[in-house]
Amino acid sequence: MRPSSYKAIVDEFAASIRSGTLPAGTRLPTHRALTRERRIALATATRVYAELAAMGLVVGEPGRGTFVRVRSGYDGLEPSRVLPVPRVADLSFNQPLGEGQADRLRQSLRALSVSGEVEALLRQDPPGGRLHERAVVATYLLERGIDTAPANVVITSGTQQALDAVLRSLTRPGDVLAVDALSYPGIKLLASAHGLDMVPIPVTEKGPDLAALDSLCRARPVRAIYAIPTLHNPLGWVLDTEQRERFVAIARSHDCLIVEDGTYAFLDASPPPPLHTLAPERTCYVAGLSKNAAPGLRFGFAVLPRPHIETVTRSLRLAAWGAPGLITAVATGWLADGTVARWERDRRDDAAARQDIARTALAGMSCTAHPVSYMVWLGLEPHQRPDHVAALLAEVGILVSTADAFATGSHHPRGLRLALATPPREELGLVLRRLREVIEAVPP
Ligand SMILES: Cc1ncc(COP(=O)(O)O)c(C=O)c1O
Fold this sequence. Notes:
Structural class: alpha/beta
Bound molecules: pyridoxal-5'-phosphate
Number of strands: 17
Radius of gyration: 23 Å
C-alpha cells in the first residue's frame, strides 16, 4: 500500500467529521497509530491533526488524545443547524432582549415613516455618519465617562465593524497584537484576517497580568493591545483605577495603540474611567448597541484619536460604508430620547437577577463571574473534557461555548463560558440545574 498523502488524509477526516460519520466527541487515532495505519511520518501525522484543529474540526487534549470538536454558535452556524433538537437553551451567545422592545421598534418605524426625514434616508450618509448623528453618540458617551467631540466619533455597523476598521487601518500584517489569553472570539477572527501576530497576555480572575504585559512589550514590538476593562468577555472583571493607570502607563512607555472594547461596560452603573479618558491620544474606544438595545440592529461606533479619523473612515468606506441610514436614524433616536438609557437600567437589574439564579444553581462549582455581568466562566474538573461536556449538553438541548472559542494562545483552559442573557429568565434556573446534572454525571 502506498503511503497516503497528507492532504488526502485531512480531506478524508474532514469529510467524515462534516457528514457525522465521526460524531463530536470521537477520539481519533493517536499520532503513532496514524503513522502505522497510513504509513506516514510522525511529523506528517502531527501536521494532519494541526490542520484539522485549524479548520475547527478537532481539538487536542494534552495526555488524552485528539477528539472531534463540538461546533458552537461561534462557528457562525445557527443553533438550529447545529442541533437537531426542537427547543434549544442557548447559553452560547448573549442576546438580551427586554419586553416591549418589538413594540418600541414598531412605533419608531411608524414615526419615522411619517417624518420629514424619510427622504433623507434615501440619500447616502457620509461614511462614519452625519455630524448630528455623531453628536448624539458623543452626548451618550458622556454617561460612559467619555467626553469627546462629535468629530472624533465614527458610526459603524456594529462593534465588530468598528474593530475591523480600526485594525485594518492602524495595523499592518505581521504587527504584534497583544490580547488577553481568554478574550472575545471576534478579535481572534480579525487578527487572523488581518495577518496580525496575536500574542496572549496571561490573565488572572482580576484582570490581565500587567507585569507580564510589560515584559511582553519589552520583548516584542507590540503595536496594539486589545482590552476589555469593564465587564470582560468571558471573565467578567472590572479593572480598578490603579490597574487602568498602570495599563495606560505600559502602553505609553512602549508606544502601543490601545483598542478598548466597551460592549458590556453599560452594565456597570459607575465604572472607573475608561482607558480612553486616561489616554485619549492612543485609545480607540469601540462599542455598540447589541447588548443594550438589540444585536439585530447592527449599530456601533468608534471614538478615535483625531489623527486616525481619516484613515479609519477610509477603511469603513472601503468595507461597507458604515451603518445604513435607516438603522442610524432608529438608533440615534433611541439614544437621544432616553430609550437606550432605560433599557440599560433594565438590563443591569436583569443581569444581576440572572447572576443570582446562576449563583444558586451552580453553588459549589468553580465559577468566575461579576455580580452584574451576563456571563459565567465555569471551570471543569480534570475528567470533564470541555468538548465532551459540550457534546453531552448539546444532546439535552443546552448550547455552551468551550474555552477554544476564547483562548488566544495555545493553552486552552478546562472551562466553559455560559452566556446567561438569552434563555427566558424564568427558565434559566432549570436550564442551569440540568447543565449541572449533566456535568456532574460525567464519570471520573
Ligand atoms: C466584547 C465584545 N465585543 C464586540 C462584540 C460584537 O458586538 P457587535 O454585535 O456590536 O458587533 C461582542 C459580541 O458579543 C463582544 O462580546
